[in-house]
């Protein structure tokens, strides 16, 4: 079996990526139930909430792309970057899913620089707010500032609502 069933009842097939399969409610639900940092936090903090924050700190023209920058994880899960680097097959599957999502939602084919930078700003902020700084250098964060707000983690239901509300805001503004 090469498929999973989504919340909406659709069968998502990892071998045959159809852009029409991607539904915002499925994405919001899955991302709101995935915890960042492989769950190694003292509070639940979802990928959906992270994505909303990234969407809010980019220039407006990049907001939808930022909101959906981790949407592939709704189908293939959130794997930590160090492990992902060791799994070339996973990275290839994730890239195909990401490409399908980008096609479905009319996003650029490659990740925009402002979205990548905002993702790093949120990573630096998460490191600060979740007390992940044990003195070990994170070279990817050299020179990256934190946000001026403190993250206050929401539960999955709240994060899902935040994500869908942000999506609707962006859709209405388009």
Q: What is the CATH homologous superfamily assignment?
A: Hypothetical protein af1432
- The whole-number mean of residue pLDDT values reads 96
Fraction in beta strands: under 5%
Q: Over all CA atoms, what is the radius of gyration?
A: 16 Å
N→C terminal distance: 39 Å
Explain this structure to me?
It is a single chain. Strand 1 (3-5) and strand 2 form a beta hairpin. A two-stranded antiparallel ribbon has the order 1-2. It has a single domain (3-173), classed as Hypothetical protein af1432, CATH 1.10.3210.10. Helix 1 (24-32) runs antiparallel to helix 8 (156-173) and helix 2 (47-57) packs across helix 7 (113-129). The longest helix is centred in the C-terminal third of the chain and has 18 residues, at 156-173. It starts with a strand and ends with a helix. By secondary structure, the protein is mostly helical. The relative contact order is 0.18. The chain has helices at 24-32, 47-57, 63-67, 73-76, 81-84, 88-104, 113-129, 156-173, and strands at residues 3-5, 11-13. The chain has 8 helices and 2 strands, in the order ββαααααααα.
Compact overview of the structure:
With 174 residues, the protein is mostly helical. 49% of the residues lie in helices and 3% in strands. Helix 2 (47-57) crosses helix 7 and helix 2 packs parallel to helix 8.
């Amino acid at each position: 079996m090469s498929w999973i069933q989504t919340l909406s009842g659709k069968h998502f097939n990892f071998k045959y990526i159809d852009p029409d399969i991607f539904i915002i409610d499925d994405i919001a639900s899955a991302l709101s139930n995935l915890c960042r940092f492989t769950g190694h936090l003292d509070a639940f903090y979802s990928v959906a909430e992270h994505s909303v924050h990234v969407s809010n700190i980019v220039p407006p023209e990049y907001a939808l792309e930022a909101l959906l920058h981790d949407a592939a994880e709704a189908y293939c899960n959130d794997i930590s970057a160090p492990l992902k680097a060791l799994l070339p097959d996973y990275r290839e599957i994730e890239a195909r899913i990401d490409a399908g999502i980008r096609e479905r939602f009319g996003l650029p084919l490659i990740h925009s620089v402002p979205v990548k930078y905002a993702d790093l700003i949120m990573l630096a902020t998460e490191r600060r707010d979740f007390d992940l700084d044990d003195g070990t250098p994170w070279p990817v964060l050299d020179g990256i500032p934190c946000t001026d707000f403190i993250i206050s983690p929401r539960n999955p239901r709240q994060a899902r609502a935040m994500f869908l509300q942000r999506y609707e805001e962006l859709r209405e503004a388009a």
